[in-house]
Write a structure and sequence with these properties.
With 430 residues, the protein is an all-alpha fold. The chain has one domain: Growth Hormone, Chain: A. It has helices spanning 5-9, 34-54, 57-64, 69-81, 84-97, 100-118, 124-152, 158-186, 191-212, 246-257, 263-274, 282-306, 308-327, 333-360, 367-396, 398-423. Helix 5 (84-97) runs parallel beside helix 7.
């Protein structure tokens, strides 16, 4: 299935709602592609694998291994940003060969191999290497996978299709921490058991991708590969960032990413405030991801109707509210649940919506490259945010550090709105 960019976005301005008359694009009935369904199953299985580990990693590092908050900040930064080193290259390779599945399979396979390393890593440097390997695998697979979603989706329902994928993805993201919770309830120090179960789910996910997802092409057979006239080995072309709207989107996403604290830190702030038992810690991840999966499709549909940029900015407003509520001196179950709802709403309003927005603003022959560029900017900025917040925590304490980041985020939300508003008034790339 081959889609031109004009087919995907109809040349419409994203900040304005699309046409609603009889010829409006949203009159086409929504139909879910089996490709997107199977990709969602793969992501679901893989997220059971990855999130069962992520849910216990803050406690494993700071409690079981006895490392400092700064050490966790560095590891969380690696977790957020190690994938950035390969995202654009993986997207470019996908566009170059026109076969995203092959590149995505390599990424899922590398993450599976990294799960084996968790069974043996016990020190800071060994854990850093394993986390980096897992995240590099994620960086390799994400842009090609999102390119497969884009070429399989109905253009007028693009954000909604991404929402369906993210919903399935987050069933796994909620199931992984829940699985870790039950394991730790039965075995208080059963971190090794969590790692073994994580590896099993990773293997199943790779098998489903290899056997059940078709090898769709993203360019016509025999057509020139991206930038082929520049000769082999020229790689990523920076002029891609000058596509109307895409450069501004990357600036806004990078600015907001610098002010996006990793989930683990938010949960540690809540645990520090309320001092609840550590075995309940994985349930914080469950709560966030349940909200994410519930809201992913409705907010994707809203983004298609109301405007992707508007929903993207609104998601960061929810994140700001989460920061301020986490830093508030009022504890208990109610404020904690409200934080999880706000954090889940943030992810539902930004994750798939950013991918849909980036794909709308990228030429079709460079689709995975553009998606990889957006993901790279977010990954690098969030890596910086995690390391910086670890230092702020050490210097100011958790609550004050959260207030400081929240104050900067309030300014960043306003600035990003004007950045996106100026860029998306232009006609998207065609």
């Amino acid at each position: 299935m081959y889609l031109s960019m004009s087919d995907r976005n109809g040349g419409k301005k994203d900040l304005a709602p699309p046409a609603t008359g009889p010829a409006g694009p949203l009159q086409t009935p929504f139909r879910l592609s089996p490709v997107i369904l199977w990709l969602g199953v793969v992501s679901m299985l893989t997220d059971v694998s990855s999130e069962s580990v992520s849910a216990i990693l803050p406690l494993y590092i700071t409690g079981f291994l006895g490392l400092s908050a700064i050490a966790f900040g560095i590891l969380d930064g690696i977790n957020q940003g190690a994938s950035a080193v390969v995202r654009i290259a993986a997207g470019y390779a996908s566009d170059r060969i026109g076969s995203p599945k092959r590149v995505a399979l390599a990424g899922y396979g590398l993450s599976m191999v990294a799960r084996i390393g968790l069974l043996f890593a016990s020190g800071f440097w060994a854990l850093s290497a394993v986390v980096a390997g897992d995240r590099i695998g994620k960086g390799i697979r994400t842009a090609p996978r999102d390119a497969l979603i884009t070429v399989s989706a109905q253009p007028e329902h693009l954000a909604r299709h991404f929402g369906v994928h993210r919903m399935l993805d987050n069933i796994g993201a909620a199931g992984g921490p829940l699985l870790a919770f039950f394991i730790l309830m039965l075995m208080p120090n059963g971190y090794g058991t969590v790692f073994v179960v994580s590896l099993a789910f990773a293997i199943i996910g790779v098998a489903v991708l290899a056997l059940l997802v078709p090898n769709l092409k993203t360019r016509q057979p025999g057509s020139a590969a991206p930038d082929s006239k520049t000769g082999p080995g020229r790689g990523f072309r920076w002029r891609l960032l000058r596509e109307p709207g895409l450069g501004r989107l990357l600036v806004a996403a990078g600015l907001l990413g610098l002010l996006t604290v990793g989930d683990g830190f938010i949960y540690l702030v809540l645990q520090d405030r309320d001092s609840f038992a550590v075995q309940w810690f994985p349930l914080l991840y469950v709560g966030t991801n349940v909200v994410f999966l519930i809201l992913a499709v409705p907010l994707g549909r809203l983004a298609d109707r109301w405007g992707k940029a508007r929903v993207f900015i609104a998601g960061h407003v929810a994140l700001l509210a989460c920061y301020l509520l986490a830093a508030a001196p009022v504890g208990g179950l109610g404020p904690t649940v409200a934080c999880l709802v706000l954090l889940g709403a943030f992810y539902a309003a930004t994750d798939g919506v950013l991918a849909a927005l980036a794909s709308q603003l990228t030429p079709p022959d460079k689709l995975a490259t553009g998606l990889g560029a957006a993901q790279t900017v977010v990954a690098l900025s969030r890596m910086t945010a995690s390391v910086g917040f670890g230092v702020l925590w050490f210097a100011l304490g958790p609550s004050v550090a959260m207030v400081v980041v929240g104050s900067f985020l309030a300014v960043g939300v306003v600035a990003s709105w004007f950045i996106l508003r100026g860029g998306l008034r232009q006609r998207p790339a065609a």
